TrEMBL record:
The keyword Endoplasmic reticulum does not apply. This is Probable membrane transporter protein. It is found in: Cell membrane. The chain crosses the membrane at residues 74-95, 102-121, 141-168, 180-197, 203-222, 229-247. It comes from Kribbella capetownensis. The lineage of its organism: Bacteria, Bacillati, Actinomycetota, Actinomycetes, Propionibacteriales. InterPro entries: TM_pro_TauE-like, TSUP. Belongs to the 4-toluene sulfonate uptake permease (TSUP) (TC 2.A.102) family.
Amino acid sequence: MTWFEALFVLVAGMGAGTINAVVGSGTLLTFPALLAVGIPPVLANVSNSVGLSPGTAAGAIGYRRELEGQRGRMIRLIPASLLGGVVGGVLLLTLPDSAFHAIVPVLILLGCLLVAFQPWLSKWISVPSHAHRGAWWVIPAVFATGIYGGYFGAAQGVLLMAILGLGLDSNLQRMNGLKNVLATVVNTVAAVLFIIVADVDWLAAALIAVGSTIGGFLGARYGRKLPPIALRVLIVCIGILAIVTMVF
């Protein structure tokens, strides 16, 4: 990797870390960047997962104030994300890329629609204001999203925001903080799995790790200031970009 290519990957990592902290879908920056510098797809996917893990952790730390009072939710939802990340990582190492290719854009589109119409849908879904545990389907939905996140992860945040926004009674910024924690769990457990059993391009992973950590703190600092409507619009726009990128 030349110095220019290394800088390119580092900058892509910064952008991905920023986007992941605010919305999700940072993989759509780093994965193509790794392919562009000549890293094969599977190796790029594995190295990308390892590199982005510190960045998602930085985003979660940056949203620590929004996580206050959500300890019970994290205790209930983290195991689902952890198990999902393990399953997704195993699938990446055992199945061809085509296995999820057809359904991934559909899932992202569904997530965008759910986020966009969440204020209206919430009126029809029974989640009482005093129900801190949320709807019954949140845990299995988080588990399924963890599988997807461990396998590839692009727009994992969009899907999580849709699930948490509909199934839990809380404001969007608090859900964003919780989303960052769950995404960190998925990325970390998948990264550990890949480090143990798969080949990793350590230079690429290190560059993305440094860039995404910087970006994660930047995204948390400025993303938490966005009003709910702006955050919702940004989530939908990133999701649509993810669909267009993956389809075309």
